[in-house]
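Consider this pair:
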Amino acid sequence: MLIKNYDLKSALISYQRLLNNQKYFEAHEVLEEIWHPLRKSNHPLKNLVKGLINGAICFEHLKRNRENSRRKALQVLKSYERHKHLCKKGIEYFKEFQECCDKIEALKELHKL
């Protein structure tokens, strides 16, 4: 199954909207649906998408405030940290990827991560 570029752009826009509304699990789900076909097609941005998925889950752990939530959040955030450098000019949908990365960075600062 090949992914349509429009679907990726729409997913990034939805992801950002959900992050803005503190719906972190839902944001994760939106990108995860897109990530599976990206991964299978070996898309060059698959790792950045996976990092954004894990970025959203990081804040879901904090939102739920369960035992060890901060430790779990930091562990999950490592994938985002490894791949956020891929969010640079010249990539497909730079604006959308950059806005998503900027939101994750703002959330990190808010939660002092």
In short: The domain at 5-110 is CATH 1.10.3450 (Hyaluronidase domain-like). The chain has a mean pLDDT of 88. The first helix runs from residue 5 to 20. The chain has one domain: 5-110.
